[in-house]
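Lecture 7 notes: from sequence to structure.

We start with a single chain of 416 residues. Read the sequence below before looking at the structure.
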Amino acid sequence: MRKMRGFERLIKLSDAQKIIMEKCGDFFGVEKVTSDQASGRVLAEDAKAVTDVPPFDRSAVDGYAIRSGESFSASSTNPAVFILKGSAEAGSAKGRIEAGECYEIFTGAEIPEGGDAVVMAEDCSMEGMKILVKRAVPKGANISFRGEDIKEGEVMVRKGETLRPWHIAALIASNVKSVEVRRLPSVGVISTGSELDADSNERVKAGRIADSTRPMIIGMLKELGCAVVDAGIVGDDLCLISDKIGSLVKQADMVITIGGTSLGARDLVPEAFEAATGERLIFHGVSIKPGKPAGFGMAGGVPLFTLPGYPVSALVGFEALVQPLLLRWLGREQFERRRIRASLSRRVPITPGVTHFLRVTIKERDGEYIAHPIAITGSGLISSITKADGIAIINDDLEGIDEGEEIEVQLLRRIN
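Now the structure, written as tokens:
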């Protein structure tokens, strides 16, 4: 029987994060994608307009294109009269306006040659093929001129920005067919544990445990925009775990193992990592609560994170250790999660030297937010997350937080 092992030492969260960033560096992979598929991606180079927007002088309203000087004295009692020459629609070839003529024109259509203004339809009336213009319009009235929105060569979105849907509209409008973006990192994920049951379509067998943590981590990776290599479940077998880790290191930019990283005799991941790569974990055990058994190592330039099997512990380990690196690789400063200030409803004791991830519910009272710590504890209690409105990260230099003290809360859901 294998002996239970202890952690050699616990590393402070800030030191762990520093090591990860120093060892992993930046992620320089780029790829070209079509503009219509680029939403949510991070630009690897400035995006410049290929053409003017609009690409020609066009009507901003439905009405009639005319020579503005011929409407100089027009009024409701003395309308200017124009002969209707034709119709200009968006996408159709433009015509030419001669003296005394006009074109019916629709929003977005190119201004016919010779025209320099558009009279709105409600300021006109029609008698046969004649258009009576009842008000004077200045030159340029109701015209969107070529390039007034975006100029050819103009930088529309800067390198490092995340493309949003409205950016995509600007790219396509200015004839940018494709863009260089940061390549999405691929992350291999594996659960370890002979007790795990992978079949989500059947009732979990007696004595076994549903593999709920792996789908959660995969969902979090996809939410960040990563490509996932799902390696499923491997039982508590050193050779099988080692083989799977070795395979994933060759396939992915990062590897995450779930479970098998604590102190038990069947917690084989650290040893399997060494067997697969010839390297030891750089650290194993972090001063965070929950999430203490998390670890980190490098294999041929590929980072490997060992997360605990309990859902909440794995979630905290992911957010504290894995997510900051992925955000750096993706070129994003932080995960887009709303943050608020809230006052604690009661005192919370803190273990000195340990960074606590406090799950709270949020209530509003007299225009202020009140954070209520969730009483249930334990890294395996997933209800502490499903019931939580947010998470407060409490630094390791505190011994407690008093009732009424203000803390920052990262919201997990919309609260109002």
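Residues 225 and 259 are 24 Å apart (CA to CA). Keep this in mind for problem set 3.
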